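Handoff note, outgoing to incoming analyst
You'll be picking up this chain. Sequence as last confirmed:
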Amino acid sequence: MASVGRILSHDIRQNIQNFKSLFGKDCRWLSSQAIETQAKSSKENADDKRKVDDRENTAPLEFRFKYPEFLPDPNAAYRNSTRERLERMDMMARRAHIDIPTFYVGSILAVTLSDSHAVGKTNRFVGICIERKGCGLRASFRLRNAIDKQGMEVVYNMYDPTIQKVECLRLEKRLDDKLLYLRDCPIEYSTFPFDMEPELIDETAPVRINTLKVPLKPPPWLERWERQDLKGVQEFEVNEKRRRKAEKHKTPWEEFDLMKIYRQTIPMEDQKDIFAEVYSDLHKLEITRRKMARKRKFNRPDKPT
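Most recent structure output, in case you need it:
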């Protein structure tokens, strides 16, 4: 029996030595400390992966200017997170069926609309975007053009289901956020041909800013333009009475009114959450739009004769 015990103890010691040679002398992977270390490392890896995913889903800062309709109304009385999320889902579903290009105030657009009373059941209007307002499904833009030397304006709801096609013929910005003063400018500044072809642009180049300053016709005007800080209008003169009233209506202190600025803007944290929700879908749509633009740029070579 003693010999059998010595043989068994020798075999056990040999197995332990082999075990240590394979997995290390300390065998810390079996200890509770090793388990905690492994759990901690896996948690750190998960956190790192989550941070990478968050960075990938973070929308660029220019998205707030390219897609301002995704930002809700800053008035707290009209905020509702559930309604806003449902509206964003509807907006993305609409963008999946129709290509709404990036445009700004000052860009020239062509909109094709379903019209049961028009020839061919469609109506196409070309004009310069002079105003863009609203948020969510209530976002709209206003186009202006001259027909038979008469100024015409059409307001479109951006997510109107009757819109069949939106084309950006010329992508550019102007010096002002609104171009409503074109109503009191000579008609040639609001005239654009309906057969205008889209201009090819460089995808990597920044958006061009048109520094054109238009002249105003003599009064009377549709609005008191002397009370507005217009950058895209040439210098004009008004009588002394209107000038004094314009001086009284100036509010230079609003530039430093932090509470008013806060009430009129969406906090940066909310903006990041909103665009992180729709960034992946918008990014896919932009990639598809760029591919289609490259196809339009491609000119098939002529066959050799």
